[in-house]
Write a structure and sequence with these properties.
Blueprint: H1 2-25, H2 27-30, H3 42-61, H4 65-89, H5 94-115
Length: 120
């Protein structure tokens, strides 16, 4: 069972590491996703990229996993509420896949955080 947890943890980390790198490499392309009511634009894309890479690193080295999991879940819920939900409400069914993806990843981050609650 421990092997399944290890494999699952690494599979869970992959999207965050890839998305973090994409945020840093393609920031100008992703800046359009920042809601217009949020000041800072592209700066938030870079901050998000660094946060995702920091979370990935934490999950890999198993240090501060509880905190990283909580913060990652919070970040994903911000995405759900500010980026995807307005799109879904506006009739954009493509936004539904992003909403469900981030909602599921937030749930996974909370489960991972719970697994490491007393281990940090």
């Amino acid at each position: 069972m421990k092997n399944l947890n290890t494999i699952g943890r690494y599979l869970f980390i992959v999207p965050f590491a890839v998305f973090g790198l994409m945020h840093l490499a393609k920031a100008s392309d992703l800046a359009a996703m920042v809601p217009t009511f949020v000041p800072g634009g592209i700066l938030w894309v870079y901050i998000t990229g660094v946060a995702l890479l920091a979370a990935s690193t934490s999950f890999i080295i198993k240090k501060k996993v509880f905190l990283a999991g909580l913060l990652t879940a919070g970040l994903l819920m911000v995405f759900v509420l500010t980026i995807y939900l307005p799109g879904v409400i506006g009739g954009d069914m493509m936004a539904m896949s992003g909403l469900l993806k981030d909602l599921g990843l937030a749930g996974g981050a909370l489960m991972l955080a719970n697994d490491y609650r007393d281990k940090d």
